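>> Question from a student workshop board

For tomorrow's exercise we were told to take the sequence and the ligand below, predict the bound structure, and bring the output to class. My setup keeps failing. Could a helper post the expected result so I can at least see what it should look like? The ligand is DI6.
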Amino acid sequence: MRCAIATMAGGSEPFGWIPDGALVTYGKTIVWVGPRSALPARYRDAKVVTLDGRTVTPALIDCHTHLVYGGHRAHEFAMRLRGVSYESIARQGGGILATVQATRAASEDELVASALPRLDALLSEGVATVEIKSGYGLNPGDERKMLRAARRLATIRPVRIVTSWLAAHATAPEYQGRTDAYLQDVVLDGLRAAHAEGLVDAVDGFCDSVAFGTSQIARLFDVATELRLPTRLHAEQLSNLGGAKLAASYGALGADHLEYLDEEGARAMAAAGTVAVLLPGAYYTLRQSRKPPVAMLRALGIPMAVGTDANPGSSPLFSLLLAMNMACTLFGLTPEEALAGVTTAAAQALGMGDRCGTLSGGKRADIAVWDVEHPTELPYHMGLNPLAMRVFGGVTC
Ligand code: DI6
Ligand code: FE
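>> Workshop helper replied:
Here is what the output should look like for this input. Compare the format with yours to find the bug.
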């Protein structure tokens, strides 16, 4: 391919920018990337796709979604606009538990069918890898049903799906007041069963005063460690319980949200190599006033990923480009940090930094081609989709 390339692979130029570049793929893999003038002679007879005037980036990665669920919660949106809080909607039986009811009532086929348009929205913007969590079944069977639906999406669309076990999202209605029993019967025993079925790529939890405490999450992460599954955690979103520090102590891939992160937690993340996953869609939807401490994350050299947090309650956002725009405008990321947030840092947050997230020799040929002159235009526009071509594993689709 001949084009301008944002490799995101480091180097002296911002974005790893190569203004007149060439990129060579073989099968599913990138074999060479560099200035066109330096293209080795052995590639000169390869089939050429000319992309003059276009910009090539790694395909995007949405490293935090709850894409599979039943129903929707538009009426809660209307309630919040009338001033009812997210927390009080949850106490009235709405919130996560409303989606649990709808998800339990849906068949696996129905979950696949309702998730497809949301997935297609992401793919249409150059996304090639999507993380999807369980967490709206809250019993072993319905949690597995969600993850099976998530896995099936990758058989119907050219996309890589990475799953997370998020039974520790809320306590199931039938276990209200018996959270420790829920933890044992559903979160831990259910994890073993789902893992045995090959449904789990990582283990996640919601560590917050409205959800699970650090000692409960520690029990979950002990089982994850025993099963050799990587961990990630919703931490410091609405309060600070020390979830980021706990996640870091388990070597978690990512700690997500982080509006209430303190310096101790950030230092622990830096030492453990835990990625900070920023989710501006939830911050925006819940009209939060406290922002994640981006300057501190930057100063400590903690990689910052950006995700949609696509879910029916706190972030009904299905555009990763808009999430990038929000990360810049609301949280103060630079356009380069926003693009790294959905490529290199997102790959690292999924433990896939060795396979995708940059354009360099040996990486998967997951590529996005854009009708823009420069990658800064990607987070700059709102509601304009400049994708010209999406390549997944070397195949244009
Ligand atoms: N944090 C969130 O923002 C979502 N889950 C979580 O742990 C909310 C999910 C929902 O409201 O349905
Ligand atoms: Fe989430």
